[in-house]
Specification:
alpha+beta, Aminopeptidase, 8 strands, binds coenzyme A, Acyl_CoA_acyltransferase, GNAT_dom, transferase, acyltransferase activity, transferring groups other than amino-acyl groups
Length: 197
């Protein structure tokens, strides 16, 4: 069985989470400004939720459905965020990029750096053909991360989800393997067909 790798970037390590990360997940994801911008993060963040979430990561990876990484500085094992690919669909070879970074660490380029590594891993190690990401349109910082990773804006799903009693507009960015490999990501997303490998 393939084990989940650890990915290194210039300043970060992306590694599998362990239960010892649970208190930091609860503290950082439990910040109102993080929870408010992520579809599935509760607020307040109840005891036990982080541990249950982390405990499901290995099975999700083994089943090929998702892969989640702790984001840590390269020289310190302390978790500063989470990133991964969810809703992995083997038939269509696509996955949904998702992430959050703890508020004390915002605007240092960490989400962009981590997302770049996850996109490379998705197309390389996981053999995906398409990676997409969704964000509340009221959250321009997340859209900016997607742009900086070379993803192309694909559209808006109006009032697509509910978050805390409000219907929210969802923006979508995506990137496909051929444009990623050609280095032309984000420039052109006219529809076309591609042959499966
Ligand atoms: C979105 C999030 C992951 C960004 O993390 P980060 O490490 O700060 O991201 P980066 O530093 O790589 O990039 C942030 C970019 O957004 C920009 N930005 C920040 N706030 C912004 C705002 N209010 N309006 C427009 N751009 C904004 C920054 O200037 C930066 O762009 P730049 O490099 O061109 O200046 C982080 O804010 C977060 O975790 N938010 C809460 C949870 C969340 O939104 N998750 C994503 C759900 S789709």
């Amino acid at each position: 069985m393939t084990r989940q790798p650890t990915l290194a970037t210039e300043r970060l390590l992306l590694r599998p989470m362990t239960l010892t990360d649970a208190p930091e997940v609860q503290r950082l994801a439990g910040d109102y400004d993080v929870a408010a911008n992520a579809l599935d993060i509760p607020y307040p963040y109840p005891d036990g939720v982080a541990g249950s979430w982390i405990a499901g990561h290995e099975e999700g990876f083994v089943l090929g459905e998702m892969v989640v990484f702790a984001v840590t500085p390269a020289d310190d094992d302390l978790l500063i965020g989470a990133i991964g690919l969810m809703n992995i669909d083997r038939r269509h070879r696509r996955g949904e990029l998702g992430y959050w970074i703890g508020k004390p660490y915002w605007n240092r380029g960490y989400a962009t750096e981590a997302a770049g590594a996850i996109i490379a891993y998705g197309f390389g190690g996981l053999g995906l053909n398409r990676i997409y990401a969704m964000y509340f349109t009221r959250n321009p910082a997340s859209a900016r991360v997607m742009q900086k990773c070379g993803m192309a804006y694909e559209g808006c799903l109006r009032r697509h989800v509910q978050k805390w009693g409000f219907f929210e507009d969802i923006g979508i960015y995506g990137i496909v393997k051929e444009e990623y490999l050609a280095g032309s990501a984000g420039r052109d997303h006219r529809s076309r067909r591609t042959k499966t490998a």
